[in-house]
Task: inverse folding
């Protein structure tokens, strides 16, 4: 919905419309055009003068044809030489104007030289008017009234043509009217003949009337020229503004594109950094030899799962085990075989960590852990015994073992429901005590602890447990 204008604004606008158009006199318009100190007005005068000079060829042709026609009309044998001299004189000025026009059209002309050309051009018009006026006195018979009247009418018509063709050269047109018509009017007025005096009065009235016409035409043409120049200047300014806006828009588009590329690069760099950080996080949580979780990851997970079990009051089970007689195995078969044995046990534990919260980890050296949230002690014992049997069934030779002739492992298992008074350390300690007891009882077995805080719980042997 378009907002309504304030009532005062509407009244002001109506007042502007009702205000009468300011009327200015011809003199005021003329003074404004020729005295206003403006480059636009000066340029308009120069351009209009140049336009007049471009049509000088037609002026020369018209002058030659008109002068020949008048000479033929007034020719008498006794004035033949005068006629020829007059023809040369009357056509010399159009020829001069033609020369000035061609010289100014050959190339760029500096303003001072152009001013001199315009002055000579205007002067040639005034002198040409005097040459046409001379035909009245030199080529007509003093007593031949019809002949003189015809020449006077001829000159009136030529003056009107000059006014229509050269109104832009106002000073020259006014000078031509006075030079061409006033001497004839004065001569006819003082001749004493009533008819000639009537012609003189008509010529006297004709000169100011045609002068006003020339001035009005000049004002209209100059205003049109000024309007055209201002329009071209405005178009030029608008074009410059358009170019500036286009350049600014192009620069903004380039900035946006550069910013988009930078943001894209930053996003890619961020993605790579996050991916790298994630990989580093995973690598930092894995054991380099076995590929399962390391001690750092185990400690973090134990703390998290302990807090969760404390809140849910669900049991948290821990299996701690290591390879039996691992030092002897290394001494007998070498460190590479020892590393392979560690990886085999790690893989068995990893496969046993079936649920999402379960974690198999290398605790240190040949010791491994299996952390199982929400798992009872009996369930944890079954899982540990399954791993023990699976390792034994691999049948990896171990001649230095006192528990069997193949590679075996011992496990300590515990499970606790956390309390505010207990801690994860107690869980690890109970599993470690169970493992220590398993080693003391001959190894290749699974022993459990009741998880008491003093670590002296009853130990039970589980050398064979149904799956």
Result:
């Amino acid at each position: 919905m378009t907002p309504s204008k304030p009532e005062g604004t509407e009244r002001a606008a109506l007042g502007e419309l009702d205000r009468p158009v300011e009327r200015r006199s011809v003199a005021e318009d003329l003074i404004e055009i020729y005295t206003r100190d403006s480059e636009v007005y000066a340029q308009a005068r120069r351009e209009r003068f140049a336009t007049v000079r471009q049509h000088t060829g037609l002026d020369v042709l018209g002058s030659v044809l008109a002068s020949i026609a008048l000479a033929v009309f007034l020719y008498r044998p006794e004035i033949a030489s005068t006629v020829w001299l007059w023809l040369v004189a009357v056509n010399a000025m159009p020829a001069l104007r033609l020369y000035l026009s061609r010289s100014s059209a050959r190339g760029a002309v500096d303003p001072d030289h152009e001013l001199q050309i315009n002055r000579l051009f205007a002067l040639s018009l005034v002198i040409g008017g005097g040459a046409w006026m001379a035909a009245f006195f030199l080529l007509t018979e003093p007593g031949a009234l019809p002949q003189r009247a015809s020449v006077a009418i001829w000159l009136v018509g030529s003056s009107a043509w000059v006014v229509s063709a050269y109104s832009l050269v106002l000073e020259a047109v006014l000078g031509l009217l006075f030079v061409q018509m006033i001497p004839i009017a004065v001569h006819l007025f003082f001749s004493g003949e009533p008819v000639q005096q009537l012609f003189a009065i008509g010529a006297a009235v004709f000169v100011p009337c045609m002068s006003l016409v020339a001035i009005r035409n000049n004002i209209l043409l100059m205003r049109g020229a000024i309007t055209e120049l201002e329009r071209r200047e405005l178009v030029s300014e608008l074009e410059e503004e358009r170019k500036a806006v286009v350049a600014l828009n192009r620069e903004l588009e380039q900035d946006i594109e550069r910013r988009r590329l930078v943001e894209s690069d930053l996003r890619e760099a961020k993605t790579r950094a996050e991916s790298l950080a994630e990989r580093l996080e995973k690598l930092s949580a894995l054991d380099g030899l076995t590929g399962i979780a390391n001690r750092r990851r185990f400690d973090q997970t134990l703390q998290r799962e302990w807090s969760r079990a404390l809140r849910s009051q669900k049991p948290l089970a821990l299996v701690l085990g290591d390879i039996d007689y691992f030092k002897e195995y290394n001494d007998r078969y070498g460190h590479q075989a020892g590393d392979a044995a560690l990886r085999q046990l790690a893989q068995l534990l990893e496969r046993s960590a079936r649920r999402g919260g379960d974690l198999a980890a290398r605790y240190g050296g040949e010791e491994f852990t299996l952390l199982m949230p929400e798992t009872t002690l009996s369930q944890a014992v079954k899982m540990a015994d399954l791993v023990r049997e699976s390792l034994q069934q691999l049948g990896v030779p171990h001649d230095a073992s006192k528990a069997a002739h193949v590679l075996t492992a011992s496990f300590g298992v515990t499970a606790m429901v956390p309390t505010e008074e207990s801690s994860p350390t107690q869980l690890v300690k109970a599993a470690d005590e169970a493992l220590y007891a398993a080693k003391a009882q001959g190894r290749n077995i699974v022993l459990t602890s009741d998880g008491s805080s003093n670590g002296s719980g009853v130990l039970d042997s589980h050398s064979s447990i149904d799956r």
The chain has 14 helices and six strands. Residues 194-284 form the longest helix (91 residues). Residues 154 and 454 are 145 Å apart (CA to CA). The radius of gyration is 61 Å.
